[in-house]
Amino acid sequence: MSWTRALKHTVRTGMTIERASLEPLVALRATVGLALVIGAGLALLGPGAAASSAFGAFMAAIAAFQPSWRPRPVLALASGLTLAVSTFVGYLVGASNTALFLALLAVWTFLTGLVWAAGATAGIIASGNVAIMLVTVTLPTSVAQAAGHAAMIAAGGVVQALLIVVFPVRRWGAHRDALADALAAEADYARRLRQDPAAPFDPQPLMKARDAAAVTVRQARRRPAELHGARGLAERVRPVLAALADPAVGAPAEGPARDRVRELLAAAAEVLDAAARAIRRGAPVRLPAPALAVLKAPDLGDVLTGPPLRAARRLAALLDGVLETAEPGSGRTADPAASMLRPTLRSLVPVVLRDVRGELHPGSTILRHAVRLTAATSAGYLIGQALPFGHGYWAPMACVMAMRPDFTQTYARAVARFGGTLAGVTAATAIVRLAQPGMYLSGLLAVVSAGLMYVLMRTGYAVAQAFVSAYVVFLLGMGGLRWDQTVPDRVALTLVGGLLAMLAYAVYPAWESPRLRGRLADWLAAAGRYAAAVLGQYADPAGARPAEVRAALLAARDARIAWQEALERAAGEPVRHRGPSGEAADGAGDALAALGRGAMLLEAHVPDRAQAPVPGAAALAEALRTQTEAGAKAVRERRVPEWEDVRTLLTSWDAPESGVLRGAADQLLESLEAFSEALRP
Fold first, then answer.
1. In this structure, are 260 and 160 located in the same domain?
2. TM segments (predicted)?
3. pLDDT by residue (tens digit) across 516-554?
4. Beta bridge partners of 341
5. What total number of domains does the chain contain?
6. Where a domain ends, among 287, 308, 333?
7. Which one of 52, 135, 138, 167 is most buried, counting C-beta atoms within 10 A?
8. Are residues 532 and 487 part of one domain?
9. Exposure string (b/e) for 476-485, b if CB count within 10 Å is 16 or more?
10. Which of 273, 211, 196, 212 is nearest to 237 (CA)?
11. At 420, is the secondary structure helix, strand, or coil?
């Protein structure tokens, strides 16, 4: 993509207003918290302290809106307390020497860039702390006042956290939605399998549900029973659905057995949808009687035989478990010891430090982001101080809030920030000039602006930025600053900061396009390890290690999602595409998805521990593992992988009596050959 097209794309992306599900009650709670903090600050301590506490409450509420599975009060407290520390340290350094403050800003922004290694939520909170610190360090005039302002900022975060605890809105709602979305995705998959036995399935809803299932010890004790256990059953349902539908290992493509399979798949979809609705609403399961009758039909064995019959019976048993688990008040109790436990914030520190250390190498995207962020923010601060405007902190603030580790987000946010700022300050200026608000009315207008931002923040960054800009104008006006002392400066310096952010990425980029072959190779190797782990179960049923298969499956899913995200980021980059062509990428991705599907079909028919080992399974597993690793190396070196060892083994392999293994193994080889064909020039 050329630079012209890329810039047009980022402008459209940044200024897009999306239809999004709103959370008015959550926004109202955050707005009430902000109003309480501003009102108490104005009544008891004056406009300066009120502004500080307002910034703390404002950022704490934004932190609680971030997509994280941690308890919302913890996010609000973490934001308020870290912002208080940043403000106090920043004032101590900045009050004595501008050069020292610039050095502190550089260190702070560099660490903020590295924190993105811990995830987007941590990076957003850290970026917000740096941005607000640039404002709040200018409010106090003494060390004692700086300590007071820091205390007020922390108090703002505490107020928001307390409101979340005292007035919960749809407690466990995000966790319910994640699990319900996973079940609904499987219901849709079952319906599509009726018409297309090889229908693809995107594992992202299952991965999201897994992330949501990792809880703290305190959460594990309080988690509703219907959220405990259903995800594991859902994971086991998917391969059974695929095995039942696939003609190679399930029912024939046509005939009475195929008609029966279609009925079973339709009934399974209704059961999964009913369970999803019940979990999402916390209501009893309402299951149509015909769907249950199909799954419990007594003539099941008269139509289906062999592997399809076993798969149908297993599906019925799994769906019974899903229904039992999804029923509120089913008597199940959450066991913290059996839960996937999420580390506390204190125990998370060494994990974050390890992740950060892992990014300290020249090719790291996170390290490049940290360097860009430091350079652009420091330059913005110096330019803001040198220009004949007041409030020079708005240039570095725009830098730190616009910059992200990838190109499209950075440029889109820079454009959206300027457009939103221009709209917000224009509207706020008109209101100020017409109404001439005093201290309390300015505070009220600031609260209203923040409330509208909370409600609409998911519709787009430009919309949110418009209300943030109005909020800042009214908040500073609360302290006596006239509109003409803030508005022109903010617009001009926001433009400077956005341009610096865009220039920094152009000068020191971290393009995704050259990494695409590596991402594809990672997925190939991970998919090969998963298939080999499943075949290992056939080679040694008595020593089966399901945990090893599960770990390989999750690694393959992670690699697939990383490839898909990288492909999406690369599509908007203004560089010559040095990865596989679009057609080759699509074909290779489809082939690897089919490889994973073939391994999943094998997993659905893993033998019992009492059965004898399948001859040749161990050799085939080893050949798959070594050849996919060699194939991954070939992809990185721009060569086409070869699969001669796997082909030779399958040619001489004596298929077991059921034919299930043979059919699934042949699909593995077909997928590998399709992968090579997609990459062949």
1. no
2. 74-93, 99-117, 150-169, 414-432, 438-456, 461-479, 491-511
3. 999 999 999 999 999 999 999 988 888 878 889 999 999
4. 215
5. 3
6. 333
7. 52
8. no
9. bbbeebebee
10. 273
11. helix
Domain with 260, as residue range(s), is: 173-222+224-333
Is residue 215 classed as helix, strand or coil in its secondary structure? strand
Flag whether 288 is in a domain: yes
Assigned token pair, 386: 């040198």
- Position 342 in a domain: no
Q: Is residue 620 one of the residues assigned to a domain?
A: yes
Type of residue numbered 678: A
Q: Among 467, 491, 507, give the residue marking a domain's end.
A: 507
Same domain, 566 and 496: no
Q: What is the DSSP string of 133-180?
A: HHHHTTS-SSHHHHHHHHHHHHHHHHHHHHHHHHS-SSTTHHHHHHHH
The verdict on 20 and 112 lying in the same domain is yes
- List all residues 6 or more positions away from 31 whose beta carbon is below 8 Å from its beta carbon: 447, 450, 451, 454
Instruction: Please report the pLDDT score of residue 657 as a whole number.
Output: 46
* Contact residues for 350 (Cβ-Cβ < 8 A; gap 6+): none
Residues shown for the chain: 681
Does residue 665 share a domain with residue 534? yes
Classify burial at 107, counting beta carbons within 10 Å of its beta carbon; exposed 0-12, middle 13-18, buried 19 or more: exposed
Instruction: Tell me how far CA of residue 522 lies from CA of 205, 364, 616, in angstroms.
Output: 21, 16, 27
Helix 461-478 and helix 439-456, axial crossing angle in degrees, nearest 10? 170
* Of the candidates 672, 529, 667, the residue with the CA atom closest to the CA atom of residue 242: 667
**Predicted structure pTM score:** 0.87
Contact 243, 249 (CB under 8 A): yes
Q: CA 357 to CA 354: how far, in whole Å?
A: 5
pLDDT confidence of residue 306: 80
3-state SS, residue 482: coil
For residue 591, give the CATH number of its domain: 1.20.58
Widest CA span of the chain, in angstroms?
Answer: 88
User: Looking at the structure, do residues 185 and 321 belong to the same domain, yes or no?
Assistant: yes
DSSP per residue, 358-376: HT-STT-HHHHHHHHHHHH
Q: Are residues 501 and 543 in the same domain?
A: no
**Tokens of residue 320, six digits:** 């019974």
The pLDDT value recorded for residue 481 is 57
pLDDT value for 207:
92
Looking at residue 331, what is its pLDDT?
46
Tokens of 16: 């897009």
- The pLDDT assigned to 41 comes to 86
Q: Is residue 601 domain-shared with residue 612, that is, in the same domain?
A: yes
Please report the pLDDT score of residue 18 as a whole number.
86
Task: Report residues of the chain scoring pLDDT below 50.
Answer: 298, 331, 333, 657-658
The residue to which tokens 């007020």 are assigned: 152
Q: Give the model's pLDDT for residue 66.
A: 87
Among residues 415, 420, 414, 393, the alpha carbon closest in space to that of 402 is found at 414
